[in-house]
Amino acid sequence: MLVENPVEELSGVHEDEDIRPGVIPRGLTRMVDEMYTDINNPAIANDEYFANRTILTTTNAVVQRINEAVAQRLEGVSQEYLSADSVEEDEEVNFFEQEVLHTVNINGIPPHKLTLKKGALIVMMRNLNPNLGLCSGTRLRIVELKPHVIHATIMTGERQGQHVLIPKIVFISDGGSRGFPFRLRRKQFPVQPAFAMTINKAQGQTVQNLGLYLFLAWSAVRRTVESDASVQVQGADRVPAARGGGRSVHRQHSVQADFRIGIKERYAA
């Protein structure tokens, strides 16, 4: 099943409005409700339930909003894990306060504050132990949160159902990442919440229940038209779920969701 919200025309809206702190994109509540209705029903929300569903969107910022929205619906107490941050070059250490380093977010490195819950979905950000199935992109479900390790089960693949312990590791950013005049050294768990993911990261994956959330400012539409993002959804149908119009497409066996074509059709002159 593919649950889709129509791309809305946001003429006159700043293209980054949907990623401002505290802003929840319109239509997100309904999308989350459609995809994770039974998240707290133990008779339904088992490992298979979570392994066969996700929400796709366009940017990491909106992924974060969706993960936060789903996590809020998940019953249980949140556990916060704080990273240990420093700079890689010893001679620069006195120039950057810890508070400044904590605010630095670099793609591919987990945040300073990682908020997790028992039962939540997470995804590996690095290859930790391929022999145990702990590779970048592996989806897991949290069994227990301990002070220094995360106890989780692998959700998919040959190691599905296997219990693993995930420790904190050291991440070191590339020189000059995002214009920072230092290399960040951060010790944190190599995971991030995985109720949602970007379209690019979903390429090549098979999902039975897929939520597609497109929230694009008008100024960003033309850039998206030129993108080549696509995802294969095996054995899926498409149904309308979010507010607004838009046509529904029902197909059997395999659905090719090509956003380049879809947006061209919607905004064709």
Automatic annotation (TrEMBL):
Superkingdom of the source species: Eukaryota
SUPFAM superfamilies, per database record: P-loop containing nucleoside triphosphate hydrolases
Pfam families: Pif1_2B_dom (PF21530)
Protein name as catalogued: DNA helicase Pif1-like 2B domain-containing protein
InterPro entries cross-referenced by the UniProt entry: P-loop_NTPase, Pif1-like_2B_dom
GO biological process: DNA replication
GO CC term, one of those recorded: replication fork
DNA helicase Pif1-like 2B domain residues: 99-145
